[in-house]
Every structure is written in structure tokens, then in C-alpha cells.
Amino acid sequence: MRIELSNAYIESIKKEVKPHWGELGWVTYKRTYARWLENKQRHENWAETVKRVVEGNVNLDPRLHGGTVPADVFLELQHEAERLFKLIYGLASTPSGRNLWISGTDYQKGVGDALNNCWFIAIRPQAYGDSVIVPDYLTKDRKAVSMPFSFLFDELMKGGGVGFSVLEKNIDQIPEIDQKPELVVLIGKKNRDYGAAIEAGAVDADDWYRVHRGEDYLLAETADSREGWVKSNALLIDAHFAEITGKANRVVIDVTNIREKGKRIHGFGGVAAGPAPFVEMLFSINQVLSGTYGRRLTSVDCTDICNLIGKTVVAGNVRRSAEIALGGPEDNGFVTMKQDQEKLMDHRWASNNSVIVRSDFEDYEAIADSISKNGEPGIVNLDIIHNYGRLADGRQEGIDGEAEGTNPCGEISLCNGEPCNLFEVFPLVAEMQNWNMDEVFTLATRYAKRVTFSRYDWEVSRKIIEKNRRIGISMSSIQDWILKKFGQRLVTGFRKETDAATGDARQIPVYNEAAARTVDGFYKTVIQADKDYSETLGCSRSIKHTTVKPSGTVSKLAGVSEGMHFSFDKYIIQRIRFQESDPLIPAIQKAGYPVEKDAYSDHTLVASFPVKAEGAEMDDFVSANDVSIEEQFATQAFLQTYWSDNSVSCTITFHPEEKDRIAGLFRQYRKSCKSTSLLPYSGHGFVQAPKEPINRAQYLGMKDQVIGNVQDIYNEMNPGQTADQKYLDIVGQTDCVGGACPVR
User: Fold this and answer.
1) Which residues contact 549 (CB under 8 A, 6 or more apart)?
2) CB–CB of 665/635 below 8 Å?
């Protein structure tokens, strides 16, 4: 049996509830999450998106897949679907952007991985196991060096992000490279990108096969699929290890069957990059591997391979690649690898790099100095991750003892092969719409729990997901909500104290006690909801439950502050880039918003929207431009204490005069923050910046020029759409404040 929302119910909610669109909300939705409806030759509207997403999720409940469904179970889930629809339609909460894009599609039914934003893998030899992808030359139980790279490649091509660990304990398990095979890449003339592939280093297939007929070599004929790319790259990697593939003097990879550049990728979506970037990647990875002949791979070598894979995934120009590399703080090669400007510009930009520390780590000066120059590395404290949920609940020895790293944005601690699983609540909007917050967080928890019953491609993921059932219920609009609800910020002040261990002078935050009680109550609701639903389903309780994700695109829908971050400024111009052929552009112009040519890219237009922060006119409002580095550290610690049992994604911004305080604050909060990164506050400082601070008069002047609603105007101007419009996207859109996570 299948749960479906009736048209009558949906129409009743559309009359009752007005979605809380932000200034950029509907425009962002239309070009990021509205799927093309082939049978109607148009994009989805918001109600259709929410219907698809909710039905896709509720029907994951395993009780619907075990034969006869009791009437009470069916009615329970039908009612839950209706409440979820109302909640999400009004934008009081949303699933992750991944779910908004893929939930309820045929692709989701076949590839459960698509519902999870990001993953983690340890770079060490592992068996492929009973996975969808197993190279032909391996048995499923044979450990292979290629496996973690294949996992990363596969999940990036599905649109996810991947964190990976190159700690010494992992890469030391990789054997010495004892072969240096010649790499030959072939392409046939029937491929329309023949010339580009030849230029990238491939050679003519017919000529090569004729000359080398009967010779011995390892061959991969790359299938025109995600699996085909992964398997060919796996063969190249493993061929450098005789114990895995046997003696290999030459590896031949035939890319003739790869579809040409510009063709659509069905299923998840995107545009084919053609074979040329793949050819370039193969030669670059082979260069890394062959350059280490006679020794073991280093953390830098492994990170380079992951970065080269990420660079190739980006080449389609629609998907983004999100990676975080985790290394050791004493690994100088890893810490300084981005100082090589040539390699940084070529591929090392593809990952954010962080170091894993223990709570007794002290040498923060060197890290702070590096951060002050380029914003890296970030800090991940595995001691706290292993032994703490919320800090308020005290030490719980080994509560997350198998965790080895995080997702790229750092908000979820993850075990090998494990994904993050996110749902976001906007308490400001939910309370404005008179929702009972216990119901909101219960619905959110049950939504995320059902995602863990998806069909996963990789055995390593299936096993850890079934064991941990990890979820991440997040909140955004935190700064807006606290200020409006309690009339003051989370951090109400500081008191001075001397650290007995270090002798450092410290400012100890004083927190808003009413906010602490309220957030603590939200957390307990999530825990109870997980306990109840887990017992109903007969599965394990979730190992951890709550987080603060960075948000970004999703928070733009509702027009609220992102995650725990402070609004960029009281009033800003928010700029969004569109393809010049986008039919949204005439509607945006007619509504009165400025549109101009992109100063940096051809065939791209930039639309400017005036945006006011939710709490801009309140006396206690503070923006990212004004808030101190101390208050940002303290805010993260508050959320780690009272709300998040996973981690808190936090990119702390600092001004030049604050950089000397970074090391001391790292030491002060070394037992309070599981994952922290910092970036210099950039302001805007360049033409057509995505965000530009303006004053109130400028904001009001721009608002006076707005004479219509973009959504209404667009619908009037576009009663029908053409097939050419179905592939349009917002250019450069990201799913998090720091740009580390994928679009969809």
C-alpha cells in the first residue's frame, strides 16, 4: 500500500497557509528544487514539490513493505503525511536540499544514497563487499587500495560531498607502490569529443589496437555510466600494487563509449562533461601514483588523488564537489600543502582541509597563524566526538567511539562509510505560524529516521547506517528567533576569569537562561520522538540526533539567518546569477529588480535583491560584520552544550585586529567545540559581490522600485514552458553558508 496526499487536502492547505518565502525564496526554489514535469512540459510548483517530497519519505516506513498493512498504521502515516505537508509547505521546516530535489523520484527509489547530503570514508585498503560497484578483477572480500577512492568518486558523482581521513594510522595500511605501469587511454573516432580527448592525451583506438594486437595489458572499456568511470579509475589505482592485480606493465582504458560534452545526465541530473576531463584525471592520478614508485603514498598524495577526482566531477559545470580532508596537526606536509600555489589553483582547491586534534593539544599558535593567512586548517576534536553527545549531558564514554571524521561542513560526526541525514527546523517561522513545537520536532525526527531505511549502494554504508541510524535535526534562524523571542542575544555578556591550566585570561560567556531552557526542551522532544518511533519500527535508537547545519540555499527559501550564523548585515544587496536565457529574468525585471550583465562570465546575468535581516530594527541586533570573535565561539559552545549531540557547523569570521586572539580562543574552547573553522570577514570588496552591505535608506530606495511579485508575474508571462527551459539553473548556488556543500 502507498500513502498519497489527495488533491482536495492540498488545495485546502494552499488556502489556509501562505508559504513564508524570503525575498529570494521563490526565485531560489524555482531554479534549484523545482523538477521538470515531462508529462506537463513545465517545472513543478511548490505544492507539487512538497507532495513529491513528503510521499517519497513517508512511504519509506518499513511497515508499508511487509505484506498486509494494518488500517491503524495506514491512517497514522496518512495523517503524518498531511501534517508534514502543511509544515513544509508553509516553510516552517524543510528537509535538506538533497531531499527537496530527489525525494519521491524514480532515482531515489533505485539509489537510496541520493537522499543523504554527505559521506565519510577513511583512506585505507578496504573490501568492496556486497556493493553495487565491485571491479571485475576483485572478489567482494578482497581489500583494495582503490576502494575508498571509488567510494568518494561514486558519491561525488551522485551529488553528495565526502569527508576523508588521511591520518597516518590509515594511510600506513596502504602497501608500498611496487609497479609503475604505462597508462594508455584510447578513444574511437565515433565519439564526437574525439578531438578534445586526443588533445587531453588519448590516442586513436583503432590504430592502437591494430599495432598492439596480442600484447599483454590490463584493459578497461569505460561504460557510459557512473559505475564505468569508477571502475576504470579503480583499475588504474590498483594496477600499481602487484599483490592486487598481479604483474601489470600497461593499463589501457578505452573511453570511446563516454557520452559527449553537453548531453544530459538522466537520474540525478546534470550535464555530461565529455571524456576529456576524465582522460586528464586519469593521467594526473597516474602521475601521482607513478611518482611514488618504491615508497608508500603520503597524506598529500592521497589528498591529491581525492582532489583530482573532485575537480573532474565539477567539470560538468552543474554539479559541485564538496570534500573535507582530515589530517594530523603534526603532519607538516598536509598542513602546508595549499601553499603550493600552482597545485592549489589546479586541484587542491577541491577540499577544505582540517586537522584532527585531542583535547590536550596545545600548539594552536601555528594553526592560528595559518588560519590568519588563508582560513585553514579547521579543527576537529575526535576526543569530544567519541565521548560526548551534548556537553550538558556530561561525558558518556565511547558514545560515538567508532566515529573517524565529519562531513565537509563539519556538523555531523561520522563513521567509515556513514552519511549525514539532515532535516531543518525554522523555529522563528514555526512559532509565527502557531505550530506546537513538540509536534514540529517529532515530525522532523520521524522524517529523518525513515531515510535510514533507504536502499544503499555500498555495503560499508548499509552496515553502519543500520547500526547507528544517525540523524541530524538542525535549526536555522537561530539568531533571528532568539532575538525576537527573548528580546536579547544568546550571549548576554562576559565575565573575566583566569584559566587555571594555561594561565590565560579568558572571557567566560553568560548565556540567556530562558533560551537554554527552551532549546533543552526541543532536544528532549527529539530524543523522545526517536525512542518512540524506534520502538514502533523495531530498530535501534539513533546514536546521535541533533546538529546545526550551515544551511544556505534552504534558509534562503524562508528568508532566515543561516544555521547559527549571524546575518551578513542589517541591510544588504543579495545578488543571484542566472543563465541569460532564463525566463525568470524578464519577470524579475518587470517586478522592478535591477538586472545587469555578469562582469565575470559570458551568457550570465546578475539580479540584485534588497534584503533586510529579520531582526535588523531591534536594538540588540548584531551582524556578522559587527559580532566579536568571542561571541561566535561562545554561541557555538552554547549550541554544543544544549542542542547538538552531533556537532555544530560553524565558520567563525574574524577581522584583522582579532587574529591574535584565535589561538587563545581555541585553547579556551578546546573541550567545548567538536568542529570549528574560521575565515577572514570578506565584506564585499569586489564588483557584483554576492552580498553587499547597504544602509537603510538605500534598502528602502530599492524596495520602492519593486512594483510586483516575481512569482505572480512569472506565472502570467509563462503559461507554458518549452523543453529548452527545463535544464536551467541558478549559477553558482550553494547549499551552505561557506560554499562547502553540494547544490542538491
Assistant:
1) 96, 409, 411, 422, 424, 472, 474, 476, 563, 649, 736
2) no
Which of 23, 323, 411, 692 is an active site residue? Answer: 411
pLDDT in tens, 36-63: 898 988 889 999 999 999 999 999 999 9
pLDDT, tens digit, 9 for 90 and up, residues 405-427 = 999 988 999 999 999 999 999 99
Give the mean model confidence (pLDDT) for residues 346-366: 90
Give the type of residue at 599. Answer: A
First to last CA, the chain: 29
650-to-46, 321, 410, 679 alpha-carbon distances in Å: 30, 20, 8, 10
* 409 part of the active site: yes
58-72, 249-263, 730-744: least confidently modelled range: 730-744
- 380 burial via Cβ count (<10 Å: 0-12, 13-18, 19+): buried
Instruction: Indicate the DSSP class of residue 329.
Output: T
**Cα torsion angle, 233, 236, 237, 242, sign:** positive
Higher pLDDT pick, 234 / 619: 234
In the annotation, is 411 catalytic? yes
In 3D space, the residue among 305, 163, 312, 142 whose CA is nearest the CA of residue 236 turns out to be 305
Q: Which residues contact 662 (CB under 8 A, 6 or more apart)?
A: 364, 368, 371, 372, 629, 654, 678
Residue position matching grid coordinates 590490463 = 218
Which of the residues 302, 306, 409, 741 is marked catalytic?
A: 409
Residue 213 C-alpha cell reads as: 594486437
Q: What is the pLDDT of residue 691?
A: 87
54: closest CA among 84, 9, 86, 23? 84
